Amino acid sequence: MAAVIGTAGDQAALDAAFEVRRAVFVEEQGIPAELEYDELDATSVHLLARDAGGAPLGTARLISGEQALALTGIADRVLLGRLAVLAAARGTGLGAALVGAVEEAGRALGAKECELHAQVVAMGFYERLGYRAQGPVYDDAGIPHRTMVKTL
């Protein structure tokens, strides 16, 4: 499945990214909508993957600069979050492509590392992409997570 990944640069694209997140996190995983969407959405870079016909397939969020520093406590680190791929597009390499696009955008901003907060069930996916676990498992929205980091 071919996909085009770009920045959700207008309101329609941002709405499409949010719809993907709603389908994956709110509907499939049962995360309350009030926890899924937060104040960081307004200032983050949102990536959106679409199929050849323009239909949304997946999304990811990049937090950088002062916000990333405040959340990670480490300079020169970006934060990858809200990676979501619709069920029909899973297993196609789209998730890995979205992670790669976030990493590329982070490098362009001068980041040396990328941090993410992985659901424990997804850690193997991120390990295959070069991420390493740090610290203990913790609860986020009722789902076990673990911090993972990759040198860019």
UniProtKB/TrEMBL annotation:
Record key words, sorted: Acyltransferase, Transferase
PROSITE patterns membership: GNAT (PS51186)
Domain N-acetyltransferase: from-to ranges: 4-152
InterPro entries tied to this protein: Acyl_CoA_acyltransferase, Bact_Acetyltransf, GNAT_dom
Pfam family, one: Acetyltransf_10
SUPFAM superfamilies named among the record's database cross-references: Acyl-CoA N-acyltransferases (Nat)
GO MF annotations in UniProt: acyltransferase activity, transferring groups other than amino-acyl groups
UniProt name for this protein: GNAT family N-acetyltransferase
Source species of the chain: Kitasatospora acidiphila
